[in-house]
Specification:
Length: about 250
């Protein structure tokens, strides 16, 4: 079974995260599959708008900690996928419900419009794991919702429900879980009726002022992440999580 499914219908590509048994967590194969799916729809002139949902009850719980394999000297699969995501020059809509953790949360900040289901449980679990933000979200989050709100969410690693996602501006609207995808695709259809090149040029203009900064922040985040991975606080945070106890930081 493919970890990423792509369906194209009436100029709308729906790219579905498809590991529901793992809450749509991403392993090595899934990062590459998403990379290739995004690249394919960007180059496909039959696609005007892209929709991102998750299969089952969740959007994505982020990284699959049971599969962190990589090849020596290889650019991390996550970074390869992100290279494609930031280049996508077509309107991107998210339909997120259930778990939206780690990349399941930071992916939303690269979407042009985000709709959420009432079951949304979103979290940016970086500082609580002794890590730092990823996917350029140290820039995209404050850009989207303002510095103070972004700082509070990142520094506390608090859970964000659907109401708070709409209140802070992370999401545009909340729907019931049952109608979320259909309502998102309705909005995608409304967009897709307009000229394809006009949509693409407008997306490029919206992103023009931000693309260089996002790339720079991704580089800085990756360097900081490498400094933190395996640090004493990271080891303690992960150990405490696995042992189901409160971490003890100095």
């Amino acid at each position: 079974m493919s970890s990423i499914l792509t369906d194209i219908h009436q100029r709308i590509a729906t790219i579905t995260f498809n590991r529901p048994e793992k809450k749509n967590a991403f392993n090595r194969a899934a990062w590459f599959a998403l990379r290739d799916a995004i690249s394919a729809v960007r180059d496909n002139d039959a696609v005007s708008v892209v929709v991102l949902p998750g299969a089952g009850k969740d959007f994505s719980s982020g990284v699959d900690l049971s599969d962190l394999t990589g090849e020596p000297g290889e650019k991390p699969p996550f970074e390869q996928m992100m290279d494609e995501l930031v280049l996508l020059d077509k309107p991107l809509l998210a339909a997120a419900r259930g778990a939206a953790i780690g990349f399941g949360a930071t992916a939303l900040f690269h979407c042009d419009v985000v709709y959420v289901g009432e079951s949304l449980k979103m979290r940016l679990p970086f500082v609580n794991l002794g890590l730092v933000p990823e996917a350029g979200c140290s820039y995209t989050l404050p850009r989207n919702i303002g510095y103070q709100q972004a700082a509070e969410l990142l520094f506390t690693a608090e859970w964000i429900d659907a109401a708070k996602a709409v209140e802070t501006g992370i999401a545009r609207r909340c729907f019931s879980d049952d109608e979320l995808l259909a309502r998102t695709q309705e909005k995608a259809t409304e967009m897709a009726q307009w000229p394809r090149n006009s949509l693409r040029e407008t997306k490029r203009l919206l992103m023009q002022a931000h693309s260089d900064t996002i790339q720079r922040m991704r580089e800085l985040e990756l360097a900081a992440m490498m400094r933190q991975v395996g640090s004493p606080e990271n080891v303690e945070a992960v150990t405490a999580f696995l042992e189901k106890r409160a971490p003890r930081f100095d």
